[in-house]
Structure prediction request, 583 residues.
Amino acid sequence: MKVLVNGAGIGGLCAAYEFASRGALVTLKECNSSIGGNPSWQAGGMLAPWCEGESAEDCVVGLGIRALDWWKTVFPDEVVNNGTLVVAAPRDVAELNRFGSQTTNFEVVDGTGISDLEPHLSGRFRKGLFFSKEAHIDPRRAMQLLHEKLLELGVDIQLGVEGQQDAPGFDFIVNSVGMKQKDVRLRGVRGEMLIVRTPDVSLSRPVRLLHPRIPLYIVPRADHHFMIGATMIESDAELRPTVRAVVELLNASFTLHPAFAEAEIVEMNSGVRPAYADNVPRVERSGRLITINGFYRHGYLTAPTLAQQAADMAFEAARTGELTS
Amino acid sequence: MLSLYGKDVTSRFLLGTAQYPSPQILSDAAKAGEVDILTVSLRRESAGGQQSGQKFWSLIQDLGVHVLPNTAGCHSARDAILTAKMARDLFKTNWIKLEVIGNSDTLQPDPFQLVEAAAELCADGFEVFPYMTDDLVLAERLLEAGCQVLMPWCAPIGSAAGPLNPTALRTLRGYFPGIPLIVDAGLGRPSHATTVMELGYDAVLLNTAVAKAGDPVSMARAFRNAIEAGREGYLAGMLEPRDFATPSTPLIGQAVFS
Prediction:
């Protein structure tokens, strides 16, 4: 089976991996000249299906649970299985109760429990929710490692090349090009994020700070780096982060731990997430065209499962002889 | 039927459009609540050009309801006036929900800047829906400025506290019997909406209580019913509470007034 995958965001990379590891001859085309030129590069990398269930549809939670297993199988050394800690300032404890009433698979922890999990947050919060089954991954490392794995699997990776939506000579064409897809159902939701560095705070897992207006998460990365995210703005404008967004994210991080005030700002960035009206990602097939899109804020959380579904569709069609190339 | 600045509206339930799990759920909730006016904020979304949030607008416009743009996030009269003008260009409506925030933590409106902005916008042909505290004198100043609708809070935005000062709300109703009064902000549960509608308020505006509910669509329906219940109760004429029980049948043979 010959397959062309257009787009090397997390959707395209996972799709290329699924097809190649099942024996397909895969070509991957990405219009950016580097692997880091799309919104997947700015992601948090939280593998947190149960937390996301707070606002996401149930099916997204299901997609995320399957994908969590995929990540653990494909990158056992990269996935950090330390769970997620959700906290709120004492005055916002109602937010914590609301979050708990809309999610499952967590335990309530008190101040002692919080300081056992995250000693640096000792004494700062009196109540939290601990989602022990969740995990996280560094999305940039994940993209680079997927890239390497694809090369090992013999995938022909072409960077800086426009994708071809209807190229001859392929049994299947998989499009995972995000906002570049011409689909009136898609809309953009801009997100802004920061990376800071401080050796004064240490966290073992993503920490979410609930707030009625400015919810925030901080994901620890290697070498004292922390990713702080992320805004959700109904806009597809490709803007640099706004002052307001940066101020709000930094203020909230300061609430989580005052030492963030002394952190160096390493990076400020933004990206536009592709989303359908229900914020649920989709795999759709029409003949030899397969489209994967609409990841919204759930790229790393759901891409592997959608890639599996896309490969299942194609191999099933090939097996039943439905498709003749 | 409720009439706001000469436009008839079919529902006494005004809904905000922020913080929903998805635009689809927002759309479903607006339908379930039989909402006829949706408020939209444009400050952030319009950054980067007026076309940038177009998809979200078109999803809202597809609902076929009145759009009430707001100046959420503005902290000065000047800021709010500028935002109102952008909103008028974008949405082709003179309606503006005027928010001028005085305290960024409680989102309490700044009464001084609010009156200043309202006067300028009314003079410029806007039809202003001022988000205000429940202060009587402020209400008078806003009417003098040209507002023909008032929108007092009943508690801080997003607090879900419900009516904290029914006396102040009752005072406004009593002083301004002919002015449409809409409670804006602070409602947490359907019974809060019933309470303010029973006070004779013309409508309620809420957002978080629906958007952040476990099931926003069901919650919108619950609020719709609660608003109707309060309105009907108000129109039907309610019994005034009294300090002692009044038996509905005479208690023969007992010393009733001992």
Q: What stands out?
A: The CA atoms of residues 243 and 257 of chain B lie 14 Å apart. Chain B has a mean pLDDT of 90. Residues 216-236 of chain B form the longest helix (21 residues). The first strand of chain B starts at residue 2 and ends at 4.
